[in-house]
Amino acid sequence: MTMTRRSLMVASAPLLCWRSALAQGSYPSRPIKVVAPFTAGAAADTLLRRVTESAGKLLGQAMVVENKPGAQAAIAARIVARASPDGYTLMMGGNSSHAANVHTLKNAGYDPVADFTPITQLSLNPLMLVVPASLPVRTVKEFIQYARDRPGKLSYATGNSGMLVAAKLLTTQAGIDALAVNYPGAAPATTDLLAGRIDFIMNDPVVAAPFVKTGQLRVLGVTSRQRIPLFPDVAPLAEQGLPDYEYASWSAMFAPAGLPADIARKLHQVFTLVMADSAMQTFAASAGIIPVTSPAPAQLRVYVQEQISLWGRWARVAGLAPE
After folding, report:
1. What is d(CA 21, CA 268) in angstroms, rounded to the nearest whole number?
2. Is-same-fold flag (13-125+249-318; 128-239)?
3. Residue 195: how many CA atoms within 13 Å on its side-chain side?
4. Of 55, 83, 153, 279, most Cβ neighbours within 10 A?
5. How far apart are CA 93 and CA 106, in angstroms?
């Protein structure tokens, strides 16, 4: 046997062992549906499809993504909350479905804690403070001074509750008076930013990246406490004069309440392996995503409860009222 072949066998042995171990037991015996609260082709959808493809291979059954966008992720959440807790219906949820909606929807139609079995967190998704290249600022300090010198004159885009909260946290902590302009999403908001019709945006890294590379947009800071591989030279806002600033959306995997503990453990094990895979790490870095998994399903339940409380404070800061 050649050294190359022997090395390959050794390198692949752990994965083969995991596949063998995960294949034991009767679950799953058929494809698993994963409900997504966003449109096909969205950045989160791309992540989910990569995750489910890899997880399906480990489990020996396909995971089929079913997109059910709308109502701030409440439509997808209701579908999963009412599904049978047999492990064949899952949901990729996050801060909208499992935290913000408690404070922004009068009747979401589900309880984000009681109606779900937590599996594991998947990612943190920070935003970035982005301005047009034509704006005469190159640092967060310069931006804050520029905005303070023009109270009420600058405008910013909001494409969802996360973008709004991130911007409101910025304007509040920096002492900036700026006008919020609502958009149906990050893409049309970025179009107007490029055209100079708005002055700044708290944007998704992967949406802004192509225009940053061409020099049309400029990134001033990252909303998370840590830098992201996609823009390693861009410091967090917390390191640039706003020490209390921190914001990131997140994604996680959930099942209906009542899921058997052994199935929850198996799914947790699978998704943890998937997110730790080197190919997934590379993809996440290219998309501005920070892979994060929960040590155990119980930790995700605690995290959701903490996020509900946090979003209560953020909703008050952003002036978000239940609709």
Report:
1. 14
2. yes
3. 8
4. 55
5. 19
